[in-house]
Automatic annotation (TrEMBL):
InterPro entries: Aldolase_TIM, GH, Glyco_hydro_27, Glyco_hydro_b, Melibiase_C
Reaction equation(s) it catalyzes: Hydrolysis of terminal, non-reducing alpha-D-galactose residues in alpha-D-galactosides, including galactose oligosaccharides, galactomannans and galactolipids
Keyword Oxidoreductase: no
Keywords in alphabetical order: Disulfide bond, Glycosidase, Hydrolase, Signal
Enzyme class: hydrolase
PANTHER family listed in its UniProt record: ALPHA-GALACTOSIDASE MEL1, ALPHA-GALACTOSIDASE/ALPHA-N-ACETYLGALACTOSAMINIDASE
Domain of life, per lineage: Eukaryota
Protein name stated in the entry: Alpha-galactosidase
Species annotation: Hymenoscyphus albidus
Enzyme nomenclature, EC number: 3.2.1.22
Amino acid sequence: MGFSSWNNFGDNINETLFKQVIDSMDRNGLREAGFVYVNLDDGWQRYKGDRKDHPLEADPVKFPSGIKALADYAHGKGFKLGIYNGPGETTCAGYTGSANHEAEDAAMFASWGIDHLKYDACCSHENAPQEEVKNFITHVIADGPIFGSGLLQWVQINGGLVKTLVTISITLETVRSISLMSWICWIEGTTSLNTLAQGIGMIMILMLIVGLNGQSSQLLGTGASDVEYRSHFSLWAMATSPLLIGADARTLSTETLETLMNKEVIELSQDLMGAAAEVVREEPGDGGTLQVYAKEMSDGSYAVALLNRGSSTAEMSVSPRRDLTIDWDTYRLRDLWKHEDHGPYDITYTTEVMSHEAKVLRLYPITNGSST
């Protein structure tokens, strides 16, 4: 959980910006809520072009104190610093990549005190996922406690397959264009997000767009409503994806902060079981599909999201026997956005769900008069 610069700033990043982001996240409660990674995306490098002509080093104009000093600043405030690179000759934005310099670069990042690496294969050659990425990760593991993630395209590491994970683009046929719907379009055709997590047990869907409000320098669109942003955040959590803020963390509204810091929804993303939600039921709605997502939690409860992709409010329901295929006789539930408890029930639970809303529930069995 943390912040990443790309969605809002692209490669227009610098030391002052990151110190301001760190200070803001410290003041506004995001660090305390668990958002501790502050990640430099593409654009921190000094040179564009490959290593034949240029070394990999930080831009001295953008980062006059150097990356290690920025990492020290982050650590002093209780944060961790992340950095970006890739296995190609150049990165996605054309900056110097790590091709044929994996050991050297991994050692350099470790010496700077880097805590997280986004390793992006979008501009690498066809075999990079099988060779350079595996090579680099081997060196990262050897050189320090750096947590890796990224767009790796079918990387095989220790027998596990990591599928391509797609960057969101906020492009929709509707004028409100929300990346939530782009994400849904991406996963249409499969009923299980777990199919994207086979082999490593997790999904890395890239940065959140909550709070961008059409201000992104990289993504198209006019922004979304607070309800739509909340739905977007809910589904990222249901996917058990890392939660990386893509908006300007210095200027987040009260409503956006309330969405990002909902501890009960965050818990769905951070659950130790690591299960990703499945679409367990869907049916036609007014102008869009009504979908029920569900996943099992490590304590035996179930997280359920009722997503109304339609254009008007609709009645939606969940039944443990019908939708979760579990034989609970009675159950209780908690609405994770309203922070309300309901039940006990021995019948289907039905509720109204607004257009583009994802109502998130957590269901618990009741056995012998007590709930787990």
